[in-house]
Specification:
The protein is mostly helical. It has helices at residues 20-39, 44-64, 70-97, 103-112, 119-151, 155-178, 185-215, 220-255, 262-295.
Length: 296
């Protein structure tokens, strides 16, 4: 909780000149810094000048819209987590689609339903588009995060930024070792454990990125790129979900039975939940942004 300006010694009282949202986010940290510098003998007049200049810059950034509303920030994080879960399920399901249905069933479906998209290729395209959008957005976010961390001496941010590439490198390197060897029980056990470790690494990497997004101020351009990427990812999730639903229904109709539909229904349920969460988060953030723009 931010210390109240009337209880703070000079020049910490000048924190009241900062925007309320800025004080709520960084007030405690700056208040401690000002007190420490004052005890160390820093000239209060120079400190006051720096604080007033910082307050003016904070207000300018807020008016330009570079400060991301909390709901919009949380929406991007929600889309990120939803996309990670969706992509993991799509990778698993898409791998099975390579051998299921068989060629005979595929021909039957193609004859009976020529407009039905090939779910395997659709999910493959969804993965490419989603990964491309994520990678494009990651570049400006990483640049801004690095600049912000260097300016505010936040070495922890650099450590968090290193988590995804380190985890990916270690896991992919381990996969090369795990894939070698005979298919013994011990080898299969190690493979399963390594897969689980990979999932844990993905979760840790996603959490690291979410933490950076929560604790860093980005430029308005970076936020716009992130919002565009989130919208693109959500759109690909909608396309992939719809294509998988259509494919499954056509497959059941082409085969003339509903046996073995439980796995497909589980996949659809996960697709629907993750896509719905991402879409609702984006819609909510856009609505909040529109209301704030109207109020301004």
């Amino acid at each position: 909780m931010t210390a109240r300006p009337d209880s703070s010694p000079w020049p910490a009282r000048l924190l009241a000149a900062y925007p309320p949202a800025w004080r709520a986010r960084y007030g405690d940290e700056l208040d401690v810094l000002v007190r420490d510098l004052r005890r160390d003998g820093r000239n209060p007049v120079l400190m006051a000048v720096d604080l007033i200049r910082g307050a003016a810059a904070a207000w300018c950034r807020t008016r330009r819209g570079s400060a991301m509303p909390e709901r919009s920030r949380n929406a991007l994080i929600t889309v990120l987590w939803s996309w990670v879960a969706y992509a993991a399920m799509a990778a698993w399901f898409g791998h099975d689609l390579g051998i299921y249905p068989n060629r005979t069933a595929a021909r039957q479906i193609a004859v009976a339903h020529p407009v039905v998209p090939d779910a395997y290729h659709v999910l493959y395209a969804v993965g490419i588009v989603g990964l491309a959008a994520t990678a494009i957005a990651a570049v400006p976010f990483a640049i801004d995060a690095g600049r912000y961390a260097r300016a505010h001496h936040r070495n922890r941010t650099f450590a968090l930024m290193a988590v995804p590439p380190v985890v990916a490198g270690v896991w992919l390197g381990g996969v090369q070792l795990v894939n070698h060897g005979s298919a013994t029980t011990a080898h299969l056990t190690i493979s399963v454990l390594w897969l689980l470790l990979g999932l844990a690494g993905i979760a840790a990497s996603t959490q690291a990125v979410a933490r950076i997004v929560k604790t860093t101020e980005f430029t308005a351009t970076t936020w716009r790129i992130g919002s565009g990427a989130a919208a693109a990812v959500t759109a690909t999730m909608l396309v992939g979900t719809g294509a998988t639903i259509v494919w499954g229904l056509a497959f059941r109709a082409g085969q003339g039975h509903t046996a073995g539909a439980s796995g497909w229904l589980v996949v659809i349920a996960i697709f629907a939940v993750t896509t719905g969460r991402a879409a609702l988060a984006l819609i909510g953030s856009r609505r909040t942004a529109s209301q704030e723009a109207a109020a301004a």
